[in-house]
């Protein structure tokens, strides 16, 4: 199957049909500080079940921090984050913020897949093992079933012939395809995409973007994407959030944000990147 060919049922990502079964995301008055540096200032936003939302905005404005908070790689200082009905933390009786217990967080993380800028493949494992390791050890899937699904996903991302290859033998674009397949192998409900093409050679960018666009269009996933590629943001999103200095400046459908932005900060940003 050609890269980016339509997803078939059983390929690891659920088909879009009717209302999404995926959880939505809620940020309510979320504060995140690194020392004196207030990165998120009482940030409020939601992503509806099955919605595809892209965060755009200047470097250092806190976009990646939002994804890392969802992956529980960082902890908030105040406010609430929910994925579906599940809070990632709560206030105790004294008003102190307490993270959800580790077992709960582990269950949450299983619902969320993330694709990183730097691929982050397991370098000492071949491509297929990269795809089966999580399902076998975290989800408890049998090795045979994981391998079977892994091969289907490799087929989906156009790398059926690379199952035995090692990550170092692949181009950046191929490594990122493996990383996408690895995220899908965990059958996530929510997919987080963090600058997934910014480490790629220019000629490899479009192929990876097309693949992700097809996955986004044909799956049931809730997607939160951070990108500097405005064409990709336009393609993949139902809604775009323009973000600056820890807060949302403006939001709307891509046609509006890119076509008729109402805020000067959005216009300045778009002029600088387009
Ligand atoms: P963006 O993704 O919009 O470029 P980031 O979320 O990466 O922005 O960073 C937002 C701010 O938080 C920056 O000022 C950055 O220096 C700071 N920051 C991010 N991660 C850390 C960290 N682990 N420790 C200290 N400061 C951090």
From TrEMBL:
Its main localization is: membrane
Q: Which PANTHER family match?
A: AMINO ACID IMPORT ATP-BINDING PROTEIN, GLUTAMATE_ASPARTATE IMPORT ATP-BINDING PROTEIN GLTL
State the gene name recorded for this protein: ehuA
**Membrane topology recorded in Swiss-Prot or TrEMBL:** Peripheral membrane protein
Return the NCBIfam families for the record.
Answer: ectoine_ehuA
- Give residue ranges for domain ABC transporter: 25-270
The organism named in the record is Actinomadura vinacea
Lineage of the organism: Bacteria, Bacillati, Actinomycetota, Actinomycetes, Streptosporangiales
Q: Which domain of life is it from?
A: Bacteria
This protein's name: Ectoine/hydroxyectoine ABC transporter ATP-binding protein EhuA
Q: Which Pfam families match?
A: ABC_tran (PF00005)
SMART domains, alphabetized: AAA (SM00382)
What UniProt keywords are attached to this protein's entry?
A: Amino-acid transport, ATP-binding, Cell membrane, Membrane, Nucleotide-binding, Transport
The GO molecular function terms of this record are:
ATP binding
Record-stated family: Belongs to the ABC transporter superfamily.
- Look up keyword Nucleotide-binding and say if it applies: yes
Instruction: State the compartments where it is located.
Output: Cell membrane
